[in-house]
Every structure is written in structure tokens, then in C-alpha cells.
Specification:
This protein is of the alpha+beta class and about 270 residues long. The chain has 5 helices and 15 strands. Strand 3 and strand 4 form a beta hairpin.
Length: about 270
Amino acid sequence: MADPGILQRIVSASIDAELGDSVDILLALAVASNYGRDTESMTVTLNDKDFEAVEVGAPHHARFHLLKNVGPGQLSIRYDATVSYPTEQDAAGDLEWFRYVRPSRYCESDRLGPFARDEFQGLEGFDLLAAVSSWVGSNINYVPGSSRPTDGAIATLLDREGVCRDFAHLTAALLRANDVPARVVSVYAPGLAPMDFHAVAEACLDGAWYVVDPTCLAPRQAMVRIATGADASDTAFLTNVGGRLNLQSMNVTAVAEPDLPIDDTAATAFLW
């Protein structure tokens, strides 16, 4: 895989919410720690007063931010960063291999096993990755708002429609069912329209992780990793516990400079 060259990504996320009670919140908004960051800031206010967000390290270079006992009142969160490509790639160790070949909450690879093995019989390696991506992209319709938060890969397969996280879950489940470790990654995705957080799958071959995104909605080479895990339960941009949270607005931006890369969807790609 060729170095994408000098490419900057300018990303931001803003969230406004009304809190009815005191609540604990975990945010996954910050770019992964292995990216070069020319600028970065996060501000959190409760009722127009600064509130401390405590950074918490997580697997695969993720950086979560914890808000403890926040509320009640008006919560505003703003994150901005200008990033370049990572200083190191995320290597796959033995523990990660076993973790990401297992079924998980939203990637029911055990239940999809007979279908997945029959559909992709005889394929392996990069041919299998290409076939799974092509099958999901051709057989699942991207329909905004079509899926429920509790839907997993099986629901997506049966409904034949979903959003990016559903595509990522089904892709990961089909790969795992064929003994290829696969995981789900939340990303900033320059070129995505309409702009939002995006979810893709990563598959492990020969110790390296390759991006698999059947939606083809944004160039993989410009994406910026936020959080990585078995499925969306590990990568949610906001998790609240212990109180009521009414999400009022959310805005995400991601721009690549000087130019948005052209993605050859037939070629492999890493998350730069």
C-alpha cells in the first residue's frame, strides 16, 4: 500500500443535549492517539460553565473522554482537530486475532456460519475480502434511518437494508464466519455526504488490518480512526448511564486537504 502523501484532515464534532438528571457520559469523539495532531481541542460546558472531560485510554489507540456526574442542565460539547496520517499502523497480535474472529453482540457470525461458508465457498485471503465487500454492497440497500439501534448483522441480512454500522456489522460477521478476524471502526470520513460519523469494517490478513467498506460513500484513504472494537457497542460516539439525556443536535465535519483522494475500490487500503 502506497503512502498517501502529505494529507491533512480537518475534523470536528459538536453535540448539544439537555440533561434531566445527573448522568455519567463516555464520549468517543477524539481521533486515535497514533495520528499526528497539528491542532486539537475539546471544550465541554454545562449551563455555559466549563466542565472537566477526563481522557481515558482504550484499545487500538482510542481516546475516550469521561464526564462524571454531569447535569442536570444544558450540555454542550465541541471537538476540533487537524491531523496527519498515523505515525504507526495498528498491528494484529494473537489476542486480537482470537477476539475478532469470535461472534459478538451485533456480529452474529456463529449463526451466519452456514450461509457465509456456502456463499463464499472456496475463497480466501484478499479474494474473500473483495467478494464479501461486493456481496454486501450489491445486496444491502443503504437507507438512512432504516435500522434500529438493537439491529445486528442477521437483521440487516434479512431486511436487506441499513446504514453504515449495519454494513460494517454484516461485513465483519461474514468474514468472521469464514475464519477471518474482523472488527468495526468509527471514523471521520471526508467526502461523506450527508456528513456524519461513519463506520467501516477492518479485516486482518497476514498480520495487517485492511479497511472494508461496502458502502463506498467516502474514500478509505482519507478516513481518520476514532474507536475500534468488536462492534458498535465498543465504538458508540456517546454512552450515557444513570440519567436522562435528550440529544438536541449533533454536527460532524471532515475535510481533506489539499485534495480528497480518489479511492480505487478494487485495491486494498489501510486506515491512514
